[in-house]
Amino acid sequence: YRVVLKNALGETESTPCVLTVLEPVKLTKIAPTSDVVDLKVGELFEISADVVGKEAPKVQLTKDGKEVKFTSVEGTRHIYSVAEVKPEHQGVYKLTAKNKTSSEETSVTLNITAPLSVSQPLTDINVLLGQPGTFNLTCDAFPAPKVS
User: Fold this and answer.
1) Is 88 helix (H, G, I), strand (E, B) or coil?
2) Distance in angstroms (rounded) separating the CA atoms of residues 117 and 147
3) Is the separation of the CB atoms in 77 and 49 below 8 Å?
4) What is the Cα–Cα distance from 31 to 64, expressed in whole angstroms?
5) Separation of alpha carbons 141 and 130, rounded Å
């Protein structure tokens, strides 16, 4: 925009200026479709969202309160992807988008399980009558199994 001033003695123009119409943030979660995701170790996990607004929103992803970098950002699409999840990927992921006019957020809770596997089986032991004995077994699983 610019202003033109006129009077009987002449005319002058102001310097041009820009009017920007701000738009609130709109965050649309594409994937996952639910707020809680249960996966097994080794499966694919992906968070995908479209974020728009004017001025361009600042978009941040955190896991349990610590910032995580997006795997890719293409235009308005923000993607965080893990090809093969591990137990350490379990947690609450929060996607926050904000600009001068508003902010929006969405969260996803990721639960990870791993099948039970015995890496060191029970072995035979010999104990003296009346003395305690201890059986040893090593297994891998997530969450840790209950032993009885």
Assistant:
1) helix
2) 13
3) yes
4) 19
5) 34
Contact criterion met (CB below 8 Å) for 11 and 3: no
- 91-110 residue pLDDT tens: 999 999 999 999 999 999 99
The strand ranges marked E within the chain are: 4-7, 10-13, 23-31, 36-40, 45-54, 58-63, 66-68, 72-74, 77-82, 91-98, 103-120, 138-142
Distance of alpha carbon 6 from alpha carbon 12, whole angstroms = 7
Chain segment 3-23, per-residue pLDDT in tens? 999 999 999 999 999 988 899
| pTM for the structure as a whole | 0.76
Q: Which two tokens stand for residue 132?
A: 């305690």
C-beta neighbour count of 56 within 10 angstroms: 12
Find out whether 137 and 144 touch, Cβ atoms under 8 Å.
Answer: no
What is the fold, at CATH topology level, of the domain defined by 23-116? Immunoglobulin-like (2.60.40)
- Per-residue DSSP letter, 14: P
Among left, alpha and beta (phi > 0; psi -120 to 50; other), residue 65 is: left
pLDDT in the model for residue 56: 93
8 A C-beta contact, residue 47 and residue 28: no
Hey, what are 126's tokens? 């010999």
